[in-house]
Amino acid sequence: MTGPFPAGTAARPRRWLSTTLQAGLLLPPLVFITTTIPGVRPHEGYQFLLDGVLNNLAYECAALLCLVRAWRAPAGRTGSVLLAAGLALYGSGNVVWTFVVRPLADPPYPSVSDALFLSFYPLAFAALVLATRRRDGRFAGTLWLDGLVAGLAVSAGAAAAVVGTVLAVPGEGWAAVAVTTASPLLDLVLLVLLAAVLSMHGWRPPAGLWLLAAGLVLFVLADLSYLFHTAEGSYVSGRLTDGVWVLGVVLMGLAPGWPDGRARFQLPRWAVLAIPLLSTVLALAVLVGDHVLHLHPVAIGLAAATVTAALGRLLLTFREVANLAESRELALTDEVTHLGNRRALYRAVEDLARTNGTAPAGLVLLDLDRFKEVNDSLGHHAGDELLRAVGERLARFGRDNGAREVVRLGGDEFALLLAHGGTAAELVAAGVHEVLRAPFPVEGLQVRVRASVGISVLPARSLDASALLRRADVAMYRAKSRGLGTFTYDVDADEFASGDRLATAELLREAVEQRTLTLHYQPKVDTATGAVGGVEALVRWHHPTRGLLFPDAFLSIVEGAGLMEEMTTAVLEQALDQARDWHRAGRPLAVAVNLSASSLADPRLPDRVQRLLAERGVPAHLLEIEITEDFLMADRERAEVILDGLRRRGVRVAVDDYGTGYSSLAYLRQLPVDDLKLDRAFVTDLGSDPKALAIVRSTIMLAHSLGLRLVAEGVEDEATCRELADAGCDVVQGWYYSKALPAAELDAWLSRHRAAAGPRSTPPAGPAPTTVATAALGAGVVR
Q1: Taking the model in full, what pTM does it have?
Q2: 601-614 burial, b if ≥16 CB within 10 A, otherwise e?
C-alpha cells in the first residue's frame, strides 16, 4: 500500500531530522573550541565544567556525528563505522581519565584510559586502508612511493622536534615506557599512511578524504604538542592545544557521507611534483642536523628511510620514463613496416602547423593497386613482406625529398607529409610512381605494384590533419576509379568539399534504402523506322539543399561509403517498377540498366533478376542489362555463366562503352551478348573525320557479322545521325532526339515524337542542343 503522501515527501522529514541532529552534535565541540581561543577564558587552568564535562561531551558528539553520517552513506560504511568507533574509544578514554583516573591521589600510568586512547590508532589505520581500497584501478608504484617519502619525511621532522624530548622522560616500568613510546610513534605512522593514501589519489582525493586528512593532521599535531609540553612539564589544560584536538576529531566526524568523485580543490601541479623533492630535502636536513644536535635515533631512522624511499622512487621513475618512451614509440609506429602510423601523422601535422609559418602543407596519399591479389595468391605473410619493402623505398624517397613524415595509415595505404604544396607536391607524387616502378622480390618472385595517388594541399591557417586526409582520400579514390595515376584535390571540383561527407553519405543511404532516387530515361531511336523501342535508365538524386544532382556530384561519396551495389539494386528495382507501369498502360518500353561490377560478380544475379521481373509481371525482353568491358575481361568464366543465365531467362545483354576498354574480339565470339553500345568518343566529329567514320563502319559490320545490334550514344546533331544511319547503325540515342527525362515528361515526348515521325524510315530532323550534360557512374549506373 502507498501512504497519503508522495514517496519523496516521506524522505524530507528524515533529512530535516538528520540535519538538525548533526547541527546539534556540532554545537558542544564548537563551544569548547571557542573557549580555548586565547583571551576567551577569564583565567587559565583546569575547569571542571569546561575541561571535564564540555570537553568530554565534545569528543563523544564528534564520534556520534561520524556514526550518523556513516549511516546516511551506505558506500564505504564499514570504514566510516570503524572511524566512528575509534573516535568513541578515544573519547571514552578521556571520560575515564576525567572521572576515574584523575581524581585519584596517585593516578596510575599507564591506565585504562591510555589503553582506550591507543585503541584509536588501529581503527583509524583500518579506516584509511578501506578508503584506499575503494579507489578504483591499480596504483602506479610512484604514487605509493610519493606518499611514503612524504610521510616518512614529515615523521622524521616531527621526530626530530618532539620524539627526543618525549622519549627522554624516564618511565616507571616497561609498560610506562611502552605507552610513552607508542603514542608518538603511532602518530608518525599515521602521518606516513595518510600521505600514502593522499598520494594514491593523485593528491586530489574526494572531499570526505580531505576532511579526514585535515582532521588526522590536526589530531597528530595536537597529540605531539601535548606530549612535548607534558614531557617539559609546561602543559596547561584549556589552551589552544585542547581546541585543536577537538577540532581534529570534529573534522574526522564530518568525513563520511560525501560523494566519491574527486574534489574540486586540488594541489597545483608544481606542488604535487615538489612534494617528494621537498620531502627528500627535509630528510637530508635531519641527517645533517644530527651532526650538530645529536637527534634521537628514531628521527635518524625515519630520515634514512625517507632517503632510501626517494632513491627507490627515482629508480622507478627512470624505469617508467623508459617504458613511457617505448610505449610512445610503439603508439606512433606501424608494427609491420616500422614507419609512423596515423597518430604519428596527426602529430606531425600539428608540429608543421606551428613551425611552417604561412607556407602551405601537402599530403601525398597512395593506395597500392591490386594488393589483395598478392595476399590471396601468396598469403598474408607475403603481403606483409611487400608492405615492408614498399615502406623502405618510400622512407628513403621521403628523406631524399624533404618529406616531414612517411607513414602507413593501414592496409595498403601510405602517406607522405610535405612542408610545401603546388607543383612541388605533384613532383613528389610523380616520384612516388617512379620509385615503385622497379619490381619487389617477394617469396622468390618479382612482384610489380602500381599505386593510385591523391594529393591535397591546405594553407597554414587552416592546416588540419583530418581535412588533409579527407581531401587526399577523395583525390586518391578519383585517381583509382578513373584509371588515373595521380589526382590533385581541387576544392572547386568537389561540390561537397565544405560540407560534411558523412552526413551526405547518410542522406544517400536513406534515399537508396527508401527507393527515393530519381530516374530519368533517355530514348533509344531505331534508325530505320524512327520508332522508340527502349530507353536507358539514368539516376539522379534530389539533395535537400542543392536540388537535383547528376552522378558526378555524388559518385565519390557513393563509392566511398560502399553503397554502389545497393544503389545499383535500387536503380534496377525502380526501373522495373516504371517498366511495369508502361507495360500496363499499353506502351511497352524496354528499359536498359547499367549494373555495377560488384552486382555482376554475384552468381545469383540471374535468379534475382528473374524474381524481380516475376514480382512485377514484366516480360523479360523489356529489360536490358548493360555491362562494361572491364567486367568481361576481369573474370571471363564467371561473366559467361552470369550472362548466359540472364539470356536464358529472356533478358537482353549489351556491352556498354565499346571501344574504350580492351575491345577484345575473343569475348565477342565467346560471350552471350546482344548489343554493342559504341562509345560517344567515336561518334564525336563523325561527319568531319573520315578515320572516325571508317572505324564506326567497320565496327558496325563486325557487330552485324556476329549477329549483334549496334547502338550509338552521344548523338547530338542531324549530320551525325544520318551518317550512322547510312553506315547501318541500328539504334541511336543522344541529345539530338532528347536528353534524359523524368517518366512523365518522357511520355509527353513520346507522344509528340510518334506524331511527328509517322511511318518515316529516316529519323526526323531536330534541333541540336546548345549544351550537353552527361554523367557516368563508375561501372556505370548512370549517364
Answers
A1: 0.43
A2: eeeebbeebbebbe
Residue 238 lies in a domain: yes
Answer yes or no: do 307 and 436 share one domain. Answer: no
492 contacts 400 by C-beta, under 8 angstroms = no
Residues 548 and 650 in one domain: yes
Residue finishing a domain among 461, 477, 493: 493
Nearest to 539 by CA among 519, 564, 513: 519
The C-alpha atoms of residue 146 and residue 140 are separated, in whole angstroms, by 10
Whether residue 432 is found in the same domain as residue 367 = yes
750-782 tens-digit pLDDT:
999 988 765 543 333 333 333 223 333 333 333
617 and 635 belong to one structural domain: yes
User: Same domain, yes or no, for 526 and 571?
Assistant: yes
Q: Are residues 130 and 95 in the same domain?
A: yes
Read out DSSP for 388-448? Answer: HHHHHHHHHHHHHTT-SEEEEEETTEEEEEES--THHHHHHHHHHHHHT-S-EEETTEEE-
What are the strands, taking DSSP E only, across 552-607? Answer: 590-594
111 near 98, Cβ under 8 Å?
Answer: no
Q: Is residue 766 part of a domain?
A: no
- What pLDDT score was predicted for residue 489? 61
Cβ contacts of 331 within 8 Å, gap of 6 or more: 343
Give yes or no: residues 599 and 738 share one domain: yes
Q: Using omega within 30 degrees of 0 as the cis cutoff, is the peptide bond preceding 38 cis?
A: no
| Domain interval for residue 212 | 20-135+202-261
In the three-class reduction of DSSP (H, G, I as helix; E, B as strand; rest coil), residue 547 is classed as strand
Q: How confident is the model at residue 1 (pLDDT cuts 50, 70, 90)?
A: very low
Give the three cell numbers for residue 352. 608543421
Q: Which of 711, 709, 705 lies closest to 665, judged by CA? A: 705
What is the tally of structural domains in the chain?
A: 4
The backbone region for 254, taken as left when phi is positive above 0, alpha when psi lies in -120 to 50, beta otherwise, is: alpha
Q: Are 612 and 576 in contact (CB under 8 A)?
A: yes
Does a structural domain hold residue 666?
A: yes
What single-letter amino acid sits at 338? H
Distances in Å between the Cα of 700 and the Cα atoms of 176, 622, 731 are 121, 24, 11
How does pLDDT run across 144-194, given as a tens digit for each residue? 566 566 666 666 766 666 555 555 555 555 566 566 666 666 776 676 677
DSSP 257: T
Q: Is 8 part of any domain?
A: no
Q: What is the pLDDT of residues 366-424, one digit of tens each?
A: 888 878 778 777 888 888 999 999 999 999 999 888 888 999 988 889 999 988 877 88
Residue 340, SS3 per DSSP = strand
Whether residue 161 sits in one domain with residue 129: no
Instruction: List phi, psi (to 5°) of 408.
Output: -105, 120
Average pLDDT, the chain: 78
Asked which of 443, 458, 493 is the last residue of a domain, the reply is 493
CATH of the domain at 522: 3.20.20.450
Mean pLDDT across the stretch 697-709?
A: 89
Q: What value does the mean pLDDT take over residues 593-607? A: 79
325 Ramachandran zone, left/alpha/beta (phi>0; psi -120 to 50) = alpha
Q: Where are the alpha helices (DSSP H) in 585-705?
A: 597-600, 605-616, 629-634, 636-648, 665-670, 690-705
Range with the poorest average pLDDT among 114-118, 156-160, 635-639: 156-160
Helix 141-158 and helix 297-331, axial crossing angle in degrees, nearest 10 = 160
